């Protein structure tokens, strides 16, 4: 404490040589020294308590270090024990082992939810563990020989690696949060997800999802088959939000005037019965629906006599003249001031049946990775993410009614 002495000094001996305090001097606090605030007092009190706690801990350590227990004491207590219990004998210490090889994997497991279909559906989008196991079984031995992104194979079980991948698709958890859920390192999550999402992309692309005309008609809803018997596929475009790229040319290529933000766009085709039969590669949001049709392989899949149902934006009749394929789209106004009664009824029929593709696109977007902006690290995987999410819907129960 800073003090000031009131009239403190007196001269002793020769003038200005020795100065001593008076015997009746009383110390005083400086009048300009402000008192401690409540917060300062609390900080000082916390500091004193912390120091006292540390001192007590160090004291206990010293006590523990000075205590010696001999085996004879245990043996003597054992002989004096009349209860018949075995004497307490110290066990030999086991040699330490590397924790990486000794610790069991105790994160999430797919089998933990085998009896809880509701939770499993919320985590993965698949209706049950049995449904999940069926999808995993279709991969066969291919999963045993995958080349992982970082060059090393994770110790996690292959089934749980697939489980992790679908959870990231479904819930769009960031890498660090997924690592906490599965109790592994962030880098291992990236190694698993990047490898598996690319594997799913190539696996689903190798499957011929395009059905024959007979199969399409057989599984078409009753009313659909009566009104549009030759329709082989219903097409529509969908856009996936994207974080704004840094490069101006990438911003221009991905900017969608329809969504008013940066997106990637894909062309989706479904059968009248509700099977997703076509998923194009993704393009920048600035790409038109017609350009996507031109760059995709859709023209080569249809045959003469087939018909395609689409929205007004797909003004692609000229592209399908050569294979003699009809395009069922709502009629344009062009120079007309109003539509005829016949045109209105036809457009209503098309709209009532074309809604099936929108339902299936909505089903695919229950995988939240398709609704949240793709990050800079996930954007290069957009093709694989979109393809995997849409074709996984084919393993879910059909949402198109049989009488639609």
Strand content: 5-15%
Give the helix tally: 14
Helix content: 40-55%
Averaging pLDDT over every residue, what do you get? 82
**Major sheet size, sense and barrel closure:** 7 strands, mixed
Question: What's the end-to-end separation, in Å?
Answer: 89 Å
Shape designation:
elongated
Count the strands? 11
Order of helices and strands: EEEEHHHHHHHHHHEHEEEEHEEHH
Structural class: alpha+beta
- The low-confidence runs, each spanning 5 or more residues with pLDDT under 50, are 63-104
Radius of gyration: 38 Å
Features:
alpha+beta; metal ion binding; 404 residues; Transposase_HTH_dom; HARBI1_dom; DDE Tnp4 domain-containing protein; 7-stranded mixed sheet; metal-binding; 11 strands; two-stranded antiparallel ribbon
Summarize the SSE layout with pairings.
Blueprint (H helix, E strand, L loop, with lengths): L2 E3 L3 E4 L5 E4 L5 E3 L8 H29 L4 H10 L18 H4 L14 H8 L4 H9 L20 H14 L3 H8 L3 H21 L6 H7 L2 H6 L3 E11 L6 H7 E2 L4 E10 L5 E4 L3 E2 L4 H7 L11 E3 L16 E3 L12 H24 L17 H11 L12
Parallel strand pairs: 5-10, 10-11
Antiparallel strand pairs: 1-4, 2-3, 5-7, 6-7, 7-8, 7-9
Helix pairs in contact: 6-8, 7-8, 8-14, 13-14
Q: What do these coordinates show?
A:
By secondary structure, the chain is an alpha+beta fold. It has 14 helices and 11 strands. Strands 5, 6, 7, 8, 9, 10 and 11 form a 7-stranded mixed β-sheet that branches. The protein is elongated and about 120 Å long. Keywords: Metal-binding. This is DDE Tnp4 domain-containing protein.
Short précis:
With 404 residues, the chain is α+β, with helices and mostly antiparallel strands. It contains 14 helices and 11 strands. Among the domains are: 110-206, no CATH class; 213-381.
